[in-house]
Specification:
By secondary structure, the protein is mainly β. Helix content is 0%, strand content 70%.
């Protein structure tokens, strides 16, 4: 038995970075005025569009799923809004009801 489905969703992706810069002089002595340590994060909005099908033979407790998805990422990483599409195909095994 085949069950088709559609997928629509939104998400938020957060990338966090930890940066540490240590500057030393020619003798290896630290120069604290030029050294830094910090954390920062960048966010991206995700939009998911997809379609798939679950295939389950009658009487069996497991099924096979095949899904195609396009995920749009919208971000402001380099000073201006950018967007790109990321296509994917997944194949999986589904158990239970």
């Amino acid at each position: 038995r085949a069950r088709p489905y559609l997928l629509v969703g939104l998400g938020l992706l957060t990338v966090r970075n930890h940066v540490r810069t240590e500057v030393v002089d020619g003798s290896g002595n630290p120069l604290p005025n030029f050294s830094s340590k910090g954390n920062y994060g960048d966010d991206a909005l995700q939009g998911h569009l997809g379609a798939g099908v679950t295939l389950r033979p009658s009487g069996l407790p497991v099924g096979l799923t095949v899904e195609g998805r396009a995920t749009r990422l919208i971000n402001n990483y380099s000073g201006g809004f950018q967007g790109n599409w990321n296509p994917s195909i997944t194949v999986g095994v589904k158990t239970g009801g």
